[in-house]
Write a structure and sequence with these properties.
- By secondary structure, this protein is an alpha/beta fold.
- The protein has helices at about 110-120, 140, 150-160, 175-180, 185-200, 220-230, 255-270, 270-275; strands at about 30-35, 35-40, 60-65, 85-90, 90-95, 125-130, 165-170, 205-210, 235-240, 245-250, 250-255.
- It has one domain (about 30-45, about 55-275): Rossmann fold (3-Layer(aba) Sandwich).
- The chain contains eight helices and eleven strands.
- A seven-stranded mixed beta sheet has the order 5-4-6-3-7-8-9, with helices on both faces. Strands 1-2 form a two-stranded antiparallel sheet. Strands 10-11 form a two-stranded antiparallel sheet.
- Helix 6 links the parallel strand 8 (about 205-210) and strand 9.
Amino acid sequence: MLAGALVFFAGAASQPTLLKLRRATSGAAMASTGDTATVYRDNFNTGVKPVSCPKVGNIMVAVIVGQSNVANHGAALTKAGPRAFVFYNGLCYPAEDPLLGSTGQGGSVWPAFADRVLASGTYDAVLLVPAAVGGSRMEAWAPGGVLSARIEQRVSALAQAGLEPTHFLVQQGEAEGAQHSDAKSYQANATALLFSLKATGADVIFATATRCMGERNESIRKAQSAAREATGSIAGPDADQIGIDRKVGGCHYDATAQVEMSQAWASAVSPTAYRSGRR
């Protein structure tokens, strides 16, 4: 295994509830499930062209893990400024929606997030490394789960390019929240995931998110908090504060929610958040 690759701990695994494409598309991400291959297309932005990767200065390298609200399922397509990039299959691209590396053909919170981080002056460049899959469950991301290879592939590709993650940004839980899944199993899988990410030495920021098509799920919220505490992970935004009236179809962010969550994520990675004891 390449230097910087993930150290995985034991965890449960099962097939996530996702739209499955029957055949692989060039550049798509594949998860092996026994004798079949499930493909999650993550390269819808066919018009974007590679650019030179940032090489000098203080660079944030943020790997994005989770489900649709950190993928490309938002209402507004956005584009970041010239110092924000996407890293995908070993190449760098401008940070413009839909971001290469995550599912969906819509917008995301991340271009505006990158611009806000850069405006703070803490970093000279932001390199986004999307991996999120709409509809995915925590058990799929936990070590040994059907999507865990997506994280390892991205960390390995970064290592080959002489880079390593500075942050893992994780937002997942709406699926389990809406389906009233077992909180103990969720907590076990989340804890295993966060421990494996922290083993890379990067900062791990885990959002609170349970609300889709209804009210927030208190049991899953408590499980997320417990997993953060057990692993020493940093508290991310509370996505449940976004009302259903600001979610398209009851789940995905409208344009105003995208703006609010981009600010919330930028605040979560700020030095002020670290000093205030949110680690």
